Amino acid sequence: MAEAGLSSQTFQTVTVIGAGAWGTTLARLLADKGLQVRLWAHESDVVEAIRTKQENTLFLPGVKVPPSISPTASLADALKETQLLVFAVPSHAARSVLRPLAPLLLAPLPFISATKGIEEDSLKLMSEVIRDTLPSPMHRWLTILSGPSFAAEVSKGQPTALTLAGEDAELVRRLQLLLMTPVFRVYAGADLIGVQLGGALKNVIALAAGVVDGLGLGHNARAALITRGLAEMIRLGTAMGADPRTFYGLSGVGDLVLTCTGALSRNHMVGVRLGQGEKLDAILKGMQAVAEGVRTARAASGLAKRFRVDMPIVQEVCAVLFEGKPCRKAVSGLMERVAKEEA
Q: Model's pTM, two decimal places?
């Protein structure tokens, strides 16, 4: 695989892999900036709806998809003559999509991962999964996009700010400028581990915050839960080599506050319903979109054990999700722990 330089490359054709709400929203953002966008969808009915109705009726209803976005269910068609890959597939499906994608790449391409989560079996971050599957010349061109960003609000043009992290500072700068609009602000970063952990772990804390709200425990409890959840995120991130300061940024505190309090948060909503007494299987069966926090909770617990980090909120979330522990007992388990210093 020959390696092309980035210095003279301009981005005119972009491929977005994954046509959920977030992938479709990013495709629209890039199309509105004048790029030709190919949007790959796993679901044939999504492709058909975009072709015939100019709308992703399954995942982003009510939002028009411009004609400069070409939907396809063929990875080979999606990758033809593309100059940039944007990856927005749910984390549990990431590896299964990347495997057939890799041999179709004829040259290294810049890669933006907008997927939030941790691979459940391997406990690998998405950057590790991507590097496992894509050719090595592309590894240094990997970037991670994360931060507080409900797709429904971005698609309406409401102000949003995110972080784009990567090891190649020049590439990050160029992609930062490519993505930015008057209402979509992107900050540059270099902490791949921290940005990914922030985007993944906040979903687990959002489940817990939803439980607090579902039980009607009040604003004090939710504020405490969010604060102590951040402490757990920082502990694990530091153990894994992240910069602790990252967790005070958009992909940490920003995304955490949004997902724990916003009415559009799927993970928070699942937690609310658990707190109100519904069973997890029944909740998930009725959901079209993915609540990443359910899978990430188990992976986060595994990482906590691997790195010997104390994460009591994550442990109690897992107990509720997978062991049938009553939500009130889980809250009591957190409140009645031995007295400790805050730091």
A: 0.94
Query: Of 190, 220, 249, which residue sits at a domain end?
Result: 190
Q: What is the pLDDT of residues 119-176, one digit of tens each?
A: 999 999 999 999 999 999 999 999 999 999 999 999 999 999 999 999 999 999 999 9
Which residue range is the domain that position 237 belongs to? 201-335
pLDDT of residue 290: 73
Is there a contact between 228 and 340 (Cβ–Cβ < 8 Å)?
no
Cβ within 8 Å of residue 285, ≥6 positions away: none
Tokens for 123, please give them: 């406990």
pLDDT at site 264: 94
Query: In this predicted structure, what is the pLDDT of residue 241?
Result: 98
In a domain, 342, yes or no: no
Give CA–CA dist 232/210, Å, rounded. Answer: 17
* Dihedral over alpha carbons 319, 322, 328, 334 (to 10 degrees): 20
**Residues annotated as part of the active site:** 202
CATH of the domain at 142: 3.40.50.720
Looking at the structure, tell me whether residues 248 and 186 fall in a common domain.
Answer: no
Three-state secondary structure call for residue 1: coil
Asked whether residue 160 falls in the same domain as residue 296, the answer is no
Q: What number of residues does the chain have?
A: 343
Tokens of residue 259, six digits: 């997902």
Regions of the chain where pLDDT drops below 70: 1-9
Who's near 83: CB < 8 A, 6+ residues apart?
9, 10, 11, 12, 13, 14, 109, 110
> Are both 171 and 221 inside the same structural domain?
no
Exposed / middle / buried, residue 135 (Cβ in 10 Å: 0-12, 13-18, 19+) = middle
**Alpha-carbon distance 192 to 230, whole Å?**
18
Query: What pLDDT sits at residue 9?
Result: 59
**One domain, residues 100 and 224:** no
